[in-house]
Amino acid sequence: MSLYRNTVWFLNGIHYYTRKGYEAAAKDFESQHLNVSVVGRSFMITGANSGIGKATAMAIAKRGGTVHMVCRNRDRAEEAREDIIYESGNTEVYAHIVDMSETRKVKEFAEDFKMQYSSLNVLINNAGCMVHKRELSADGLEKNFATNTMGVYVLTQALIPLLQKSRDPRVITVSSGGMLVQKLRVDDLQSDKGHFDGVMVYAQNKRQQVVLTQQWAKANPLIHFSVMHPGWVDTPAVATSMPQFHQMMGDRLRSVEQGADTVVWLALCRVSARSRSGQFFQDRCPVPAHLPLAWTHSSPEDVQRFMSQLETLAKAILSQPEEEHNSPMSATRPQFV
Ligand SMILES: NC(=O)c1ccc[n+]([C@@H]2O[C@H](COP(=O)([O-])OP(=O)(O)OC[C@H]3O[C@@H](n4cnc5c(N)ncnc54)[C@H](O)[C@@H]3O)[C@@H](O)[C@H]2O)c1
């Protein structure tokens, strides 16, 4: 089955996810959709110092939006912030330093943000990683899961009350077409059973983001949720995490602006928010979140089990006493399985 899924996915990718795929899709784009001013609206973008996140931040800043960049490294964040201010002429660009793999820090940041700001119109969960060796976060979670799933879950959950108070609120999560080869697995969220394959763990996390988006959409009708695939894009993440793929695809990879296009469209365009909440997008269109005949649909019980496990894990981490959390053992000990 996984050979079938991988083959269909790759053939799909060569056709649709490349630069040529973007150019073909873009022939149907309405050019005036992004001809908007978003002065007075605020946007939070994780991983905004590089690749798709930076291109998204730039596009929003150029249209007058207030941009909150959430980045791991202060120097890289400041450098990107200066570029965005210089090129867009918009000074409403702020850098917040948070490591999205550190669940407690993510929660602290979100709570501080809610105290400091009275509104947030759009949250863009873009930061992501593909770590090939099994490593644990400061909270004892497997690193890919901590960043791609738990970080997204805790940040979004914590900001939902603020988003709900704001006008035309939206949450966009940058997933990956790679998730199409994965069925949601609920028995090994920490990937500590059997052989560890970072590419498959990443793809599983990206499937989890799609499931989360569907569940959030059901539970929060006041907010428009979407999740998307940017295509295959020439970014530092692809160059470093998948060097062979990067080399093989070369010029066929999309530019960062092409990869960011659907994120920007989902974040800014009036029409995009009229679509049903909770859908998976590619090149400005909702597309199926499953390959045909791939048996990747989950039962409602599995989805429920996944959501309860996330909630339980988050509660366990966030209720840990500070001393225990800071103990040298906490970074190496698998506390949650
Ligand atoms: N490039 C592609 O072909 C492609 C394809 C599918 C999905 N994506 C997704 O697009 C998103 C953006 O990636 P990109 O390709 O632009 O790569 P990138 O390396 O340019 O950007 C990733 C960003 O995430 C940030 N990040 C990673 N771990 C973090 C952490 N723990 N805390 C805070 N920030 C963290 C990085 O610092 C960087 O700013 C990711 O979610 C990725 O999975 C990319």
From TrEMBL:
<dbReference type="InterPro" id="IPR002347">
    <property type="entry name" value="SDR_fam"/>
</dbReference>
<dbReference type="InterPro" id="IPR036291">
    <property type="entry name" value="NAD(P)-bd_dom_sf"/>
</dbReference>
<dbReference type="Pfam" id="PF00106">
    <property type="entry name" value="adh_short"/>
</dbReference>
<dbReference type="InterPro" id="IPR052992">
    <property type="entry name" value="SDR_member_12"/>
</dbReference>
<protein>
    <submittedName>
        <fullName>Dehydrogenase/reductase SDR family member 12-like</fullName>
    </submittedName>
</protein>
